[in-house]
Specification:
single chain; alpha+beta; Alpha-lytic protease prodomain-like; Alpha-Beta Plaits; 2 domains; 4-stranded mixed β-sheet; 4 strands; Cation transporter
Length: 294
């Protein structure tokens, strides 16, 4: 399934889950279920933003965006994180009001069943998004998937809180679970924003991936002397790699080009969607550090 179809599926699932949670809240009157339904409103908004970002990110490079549009997904993820934080603050306000004016929720078996159905649907779609997001290297899908995981956890907590209210008669369990839901959502929103800002700031690839890149350059650059000034960054599903490759002064242009082609082929086989820039230099430019060719 393509990223655009997955993003469209997220919108449909988010609307379905919102309707289910709103129905559960209407049947029970639980402030914790109201908080859960309010988060689902954010889910719909973030899913729509992810759909637009994924479609925009798949546009080919043009004169104004020669490196493509992949970073659009990071903007979507930042927006999702901000909306999640806003929803959490609204939930905390509602929970505080419920603490001051506690009232017993209705012990509606149908309402609880509807809430459970919404949670199961969210969990199934979260697993789908996370698997696809990792495979497609899509920040927007990964952010949406992580948000749904957080939603599943909080929904489970809400159901536990309702169970405690019904079994103990202690009314403040309901607003307590709403408040804990809000705190969990706050953490989720902050995590999404932090990771997305890292992408916008051109953070280097993780250390384990950088080590694999260095190893490939060292083993596939036979005929060269060294590689230095290796730099990496990520933009959506694309990984950008650039470095200077030092070759002997007697190496012909054709031979140097063949070395570069060999390195590029190996890196793309390892990374997938990679944009590689290699600057070839003569032996006198060697810095004697960086990647030593084996």
């Amino acid at each position: 399934m393509t990223p655009a179809k997955l993003a469209a599926g997220s919108v449909a699932v988010a609307i379905l889950v919102l309707l289910l949670k709103a129905g559960a809240w209407w049947l029970t009157g639980s402030v914790a279920l109201f908080a859960d339904a309010l988060e689902s409103v954010v889910n719909v908004a973030t899913s729509m933003a992810a759909l637009l970002a994924v479609r925009f990110s798949q546009m080919p490079p043009d004169a104004n965006h020669p490196y493509g549009h992949a970073k659009a997904e990071y903007f979507s993820a930042v927006l999702a994180g901000v909306l999640i934080i806003v929803a959490a603050l609204l939930i905390l306000n509602e929970a505080w009001g419920a603490v001051q004016r506690p009232r017993a929720p209705e012990a509606s078996a149908i309402g609880i069943g509807v809430a459970i159905a919404a949670t199961v649907a969210n969990a199934a779609w979260a697993v789908t998004l996370l698997r696809a997001g990792r495979r497609l290297r899509s920040p927007a899908l990964m952010a949406d998937g992580r948000h749904l995981v957080s939603d599943v956890v909080t929904s489970a907590g809400v159901l536990v809180g309702l169970g405690l209210v019904f079994t103990t008669g202690i009314l403040w369990f309901d607003p307590l679970m709403a408040a804990l839901t809000a705190l969990n959502i706050l953490w989720s929103g902050w995590s999404v924003v932090r990771e997305s800002v890292g992408g916008l700031m051109d953070e280097a690839v993780p250390q384990d991936q950088l080590a694999r890149i260095r190893s490939i350059v060292a083993t596939k650059a036979d005929g060269a002397i060294e590689a230095h000034d290796l730099r990496t960054r990520q933009a959506g599903r694309f990984t950008f790699v650039e470095f200077h490759l030092v070759v002997g002064g007697e190496t012909s242009v054709n031979a140097a080009h063949a070395i570069c082609d060999r390195i590029e082929a190996a890196l793309k086989a390892e990374i997938g969607d990679a944009v590689i820039t290699i600057h070839v230099e003569p032996e006198g430019k060697a810095k004697h550090h960086g990647v030593v060719v084996l």
